[in-house]
Write a structure and sequence with these properties.
Structural class of chain A: alpha/beta
Distance between the termini of chain B: 6 Å
Shape of chain A: globular
Bound molecules: thiamine diphosphate, iron/sulfur cluster, magnesium ion
Helix content of chain A: 25-40%
Strand order of the largest sheet of chain B: 1-4
CATH superfamily of chain A: Thiamin diphosphate (ThDP)-binding fold, Pyr/PP domains
Radius of gyration of chain A: 17 Å
Helix content of chain B: 10-25%
CATH architecture of chain A: 3-Layer(aba) Sandwich
CATH topology of chain B: Alpha-Beta Plaits
Number of strands of chain A: 8
Distance between the termini of chain A: 41 Å
CATH architecture of chain B: 2-Layer Sandwich
Strand order of the largest sheet of chain A: 3-2-4-5-7-6-8
Order of helices and strands of chain A: EHEHEHEHHEHHEHEHHEH
Structural class of chain B: alpha+beta
Strand content of chain A: 15-25%
Largest interface: A-B, 28 and 24 residues
Number of strands of chain B: 4
Number of helices of chain A: 11
Largest sheet of chain A: 7 strands, mixed
CATH class of chain A: Alpha Beta
Largest sheet of chain B: 2 strands, antiparallel
Radius of gyration of chain B: 11 Å
Strand content of chain B: 15-25%
Oligomer: heterodimer
Number of helices of chain B: 2
Number of domains of chain A: 1
Order of helices and strands of chain B: EHEEHE
Chain lengths: 249, 68
């Protein structure tokens, strides 16, 4: 009996991502959620600008390519025009928390009934490793060669903490993909974020703390260790907002 | 008996499956290079595999199929 195989919601196209890039794991988790919920035929994804710009080749559902950061606005239009379809965005930290911050915050506060997958790898991967709004204090990047200096460029943005202060959103949760246990927990959270949309509950965002071995200048396995030792302490994992859970209590 | 199969052509030799295997059964094949120029992961002793799929869970490229 097959206990593990590639999900049907992924095409057979080989991923262009660097060796050991966690974008691949996160793509698979999204696809597994789509398979298990039986929604492949009615799901439409919105791809970002960033390393995942070619996600439309990898997901077997219909996909739309948004301008940089505008995925939640595009998803809003899709969902309002086609309320029976399941709409998700897949966005990096530069896309979602820098150029697209306004779209993110306003979709969240409107409790737009969409699913947002937010890949936080603390860097602009696609463009060669510039500092992101989520780069850690002291983190060396192409544009912070002496380490992020919070005195001049400010502090990293904790997206989950910030959005959970809004009354609007349904689910705001942070997970990571640095080991088997966390990958399994991430899968559960992503599936819930899709189920919430099917149930009409509203805006569900899952932040996935991820790695960029190439631009961090590390081997894939050292990048996961660095993530665990440096990113998770700054970006604690957990459920930041779950309105339905609160109502049950 | 558990069995893992690798789509060797799309393996990027990243090693994440190797770290994840609780039985330490996987290695990078030093004497092989696939179409993409990567040395792929391979199994050293299939008979010791417990079919836990930890390797496949950490593989970013869906290279591994696990049967039990
Ligand atoms: C309007 C616009 N501004 C800037 C860019 C350049 N650009 C491309 S990708 C990117 C950031 C990507 O970083 P992130 O969203 O974190 O994705 P990652 O590659 O790290 O997954 C930027 C600034 C662009 N393509 N379009
Ligand atoms: S640059 Fe970084 S985020 Fe982009 S594919 Fe490579 S490892 Fe992944
Ligand atoms: S299924 Fe488990 S025991 Fe078998 S190779 Fe993969 S990780 Fe190792
Ligand atoms: S995790 Fe996947 S891509 Fe990486 S070495 Fe193992 S089989 Fe190859
Ligand atoms: Mg990024």
């Amino acid at each position: 009996m097959v206990v593990f195989d590639k999900p049907k919601a992924l095409t057979d196209a080989p991923l262009h991502y660097c060796p050991g890039c966690t974008h691949g794991i996160i793509h698979r988790l999204v696809a597994e959620a789509i398979d298990e919920l039986g929604i492949l035929g009615k799901t439409v994804g919105v791809a970002p600008v960033g390393c995942a710009v070619m996600a439309y080749d990898y997901f077997a559902c219909d996909m739309v390519e948004a301008a940089h950061g505008r995925a939640p606005a595009v998803a809003t239009g899709l969902k309002r025009a086609m309320p029976e379809n399941v709409i998700f965005t897949y966005q990096g930290d530069g896309d979602l928390a820098s150029i697209g911050m306004a779209e993110t915050v306003h979709a969240a506060t409107r409790n737009e009934n969409i699913t947002v997958i937010f890949v936080n790898n603390a860097i602009y991967g696609m463009t060669g490793g510039q500092m992101a709004p989520t780069s850690l204090p002291g983190q060396v990047t192409q544009t912070s060669p002496y380490g992020r200096d919070v005195k001049t460029v400010g502090y990293p943005i904790r997206v989950c903490e910030m959005l959970s202060a809004l009354d609007g959103p349904e689910l705001i949760q942070r997970v990571a993909v640095n080991n088997v246990k966390n990958v399994m927990a991430a899968k559960k959270a992503i599936k819930k974020a899709f189920q919430n949309q099917i149930d009409g509950k509203g805006f569900s965002l899952i932040e996935v703390v991820s790695s960029c071995p190439t631009n961090w200048g590390m081997t894939p396995s050292n990048a996961l260790k660095w993530l665990e030792e440096n990113m998770i302490p700054y970006y604690p994992l957990g459920v930041y907002k779950d309105r339905s859970a609160k109502e049950v209590k | 008996m558990a069995k893992v199969t690798f789509k060797t052509d799309i393996c990027k030799g990243c090693g994440l499956c190797i770290e994840a295997c609780p039985k330490k059964l996987l290695v990078i094949a030093k004497d092989k290079i696939n179409k993409k120029g990567h040395s792929p992961a391979e199994m050293t002793d299939q008979s010791k595999c417990i079919g836990c799929a930890f390797c496949a869970t950490m593989c970013p490229d869906c290279v591994i199929t696990v049967e039990k």
